Amino acid sequence: MPTLFDPITLGAIQAPNRLLMAPMTRARGTRDHVPTPMMANYYAQRASAGLIISEAIGISQQGLGWPYATGIWSAEQIAGWRRVTEAVHGADGRIIAQLWHMGRVVHPSFLGGAQPVSASVTTAPGHAHTYAGKQPYTAACTLRRDEIPGLLADFQAAARNAMAAGFDGVQLHASNGYLIDQFLRDSANHRDDAYGGPIPNRIRFLREVTQAVADAVGADRTGVRLSPNGETQGVRDSDPLPLFIAAAEALSAIGIAHLELREPPLDGTCGVGYPPPLAPLIRPAFKGPVLLNSDFDVARAQEDLGAGTGDAVTFGRPFIANPDFPRRIAEGLPLAADDRETWFTQGPDGYLDYPSADGSARRQSA
């Protein structure tokens, strides 16, 4: 039975343990979405993770609508991320870039007043985070079929830019109610063309984006993140199990390096309304490594590895306050608690100043 401290092969990446760092938006970029020097220190502090999956990185201005989040479409952004990857590699770590298009969740204020794009004309519930504070979401316009090749080219370019920036691979953010997820699930996809309706059509965009990225950087350096159970940002599906089994089969056929499944547990820690995780039923459809995510503790993580539900687990918040999280678990050391108030602030507080177990924070000024 594998343990969390056994190595694992994830395509072209050899991870020394199965305690992986999940992608987490931390809003430490510039207003122009360029990575800042403090980010290199933050990620290097956490290099003992078996693999770091970066915060979500916008593939284009059209796809990025979060204040102080980062992109990877400009030379300056690539150079900023290169400082991060060099710092992680210098600390003997591995890091991949999570590629992000937010779709209907982008507020027009990020787009010069233009409408966001999505699978269909729909509006996300709630309010967007903008530089002017929270503002109501607006209706997205439907991506025309003749616009989809341009989106595929944007994903390919972002993947190539990530490799130029020194990342060890990429992961497609196809979960959490963002653009690819908006195509997948029937609450957001009302199309009547080849990208809507029956399941083979609704997984088409996911399949095409994944194939385009795999063609650009190699399937062995390409991963995908899905969120099969429950609703995120108003995106849900009336019959998710056959949908996500079909998606997993399509991704398996491409031969990608890993499939990550983000599924909040049934115990209510992520809110009410979530059905049981579908990972045990999806697992047989994907032949490569499966990563499990969302509110795992170590005991549950080891139990699911032992049951064969997944091959590794990505941890999010534990890595915020515990930069040396794998060491603390290995040695039975106490875990520090993170400060929610500093999750999305722009300074080093709550970002660089969480100490390792030996008391050092390795904090540097930005």
How are the SSEs placed, and which strands pair?
Blueprint: E1 8-10, E2 13-15, E3 19-21, H1 37-45, E4 52-58, E5 70-71, H2 75-90, E6 95-100, E7 117-118, E8 127-130, E9 133-136, E10 141-142, H3 148-164, E11 170-173, H4 179-184, H5 199-202, H6 204-217, E12 222-226, H7 240-254, E13 258-262, H8 279-282, E14 290-293, H9 298-307, E15 312-315, H10 317-321, H11 325-331
Parallel strand pairs: 3-15, 4-5, 4-6, 6-11, 7-10, 11-12, 12-13, 13-14, 14-15
Antiparallel strand pairs: 1-2, 8-9
Helix pairs in contact: 1-2, 3-6, 6-7
Q: Rg, please?
A: 19 Å
Number of helices: 11
- List unreliable stretches of 5+ residues: 268-272, 362-366
* Major sheet: arrangement of strands: 3-15-14-13-12-11-6-4-5
N/C terminus separation: 43 Å
Q: Mean pLDDT, as a whole number?
A: 95
Secondary structure: number of strands? 15
Helix/strand structural class: alpha/beta
Helix content: 25-40%
- Profile the largest sheet: 9 strands, parallel
Textual characterization of the structure:
This protein has 366 residues and is of the alpha/beta class. It has 11 helices and 15 strands. A 9-stranded parallel beta sheet has the order 3-15-14-13-12-11-6-4-5. A two-stranded antiparallel sheet has the order 1-2. A two-stranded parallel ribbon has the order 7-10. Strand 13 (258-262), helix 8 and strand 14 (290-293) form a beta-alpha-beta unit. Helix 3 packs parallel to helix 6 and helix 6 (204-217) packs parallel to helix 7 (240-254). The chain is globular and about 55 Å long.
Observed structural traits:
about 375 residues; disordered C terminus
